[in-house]
Amino acid sequence: MTLRAERVSRAAGGRLILDGVGLSPRPGAMTGLLGPNGSGKSTLLRLLAGVLAPAGGVVTLDGRPLDRVGRRDVARRVAVVEQQADTQVELTVRDVVRLGRIPHRRAWTPTSTADEEAVTDALERTALAGQADRLWHTLSGGERQRVQIARALAQRPRELLLDEPTNHLDIQHQLDVLSLVAALPVTSVVALHDLNLAAMYCDHLVVLSEGRVVASGDPAEVLTADLVADVYRVRAEVGHGPGGRPHVRFLGTLTAKPPSRALTRPGRATEDDRTA
């Protein structure tokens, strides 16, 4: 078992951000969370991480409501990589990665042999061992993102949540980061804007629109021209890319909103299938 959101809702400023959303990541797989700005992706990730509490519904970890699991226990299991991180303190790469061991240590105690082994392993997995002594502020955006993933891996998590990990990165670093995440032996949920990157790397996709799940399934089922038009207001053609994965070619924006369609086509969420 793993993380699961069951019909969760959340409001802010009098506006409903999530409305009865269900999400069940496949253990050991990479689930892509898609949707336009304001669709609720970041809020859902924060609910899964226990940073926010749902106004309705429940988030569970191994079948237990998350609010009944101790914070330290959650932190040992679930790691989070935010869009962007920064610090004014002069920390080395190794120092930043060591922060991932905090859930496993008592306050004010020095790092243990197990801590240092976890840090070294995380640095090696992310190809950062040769840069462990570099200062954080001297790194490029792509390198910083790898360090944040290494910090998360040092937690030794079983679940990894990533909020737009490719944001502000060039194409090479986008591919490097997603290749790294896809190869990790963890259950991962990653919020993305790029539909083609999601198609290339994700095993399962969940699409949010106006706070609701409107599609879920394999990339080939979910990424259709109709869905892109409905959710993103963009005309598109969907063909096949490497390995038979779908590839979206964008043709232009739509001005008039099309008539609503029943969400019952393959890859679309129905009333009885609101859980991804």
From TrEMBL:
<dbReference type="Pfam" id="PF00005">
    <property type="entry name" value="ABC_tran"/>
</dbReference>
<dbReference type="InterPro" id="IPR003439">
    <property type="entry name" value="ABC_transporter-like_ATP-bd"/>
</dbReference>
<dbReference type="GO" id="GO:0005524">
    <property type="term" value="F:ATP binding"/>
</dbReference>
<dbReference type="InterPro" id="IPR017871">
    <property type="entry name" value="ABC_transporter-like_CS"/>
</dbReference>
<keyword id="KW-0813">Transport</keyword>
<dbReference type="InterPro" id="IPR003593">
    <property type="entry name" value="AAA+_ATPase"/>
</dbReference>
<dbReference type="InterPro" id="IPR027417">
    <property type="entry name" value="P-loop_NTPase"/>
</dbReference>
<feature type="region of interest" description="Disordered">
    <location>
        <begin position="245"/>
        <end position="276"/>
    </location>
</feature>
<dbReference type="GO" id="GO:0016887">
    <property type="term" value="F:ATP hydrolysis activity"/>
</dbReference>
<keyword id="KW-0547">Nucleotide-binding</keyword>
<keyword id="KW-0067">ATP-binding</keyword>
<feature type="domain" description="ABC transporter">
    <location>
        <begin position="3"/>
        <end position="235"/>
    </location>
</feature>
<protein>
    <submittedName>
        <fullName>Histidinol phosphatase</fullName>
    </submittedName>
</protein>
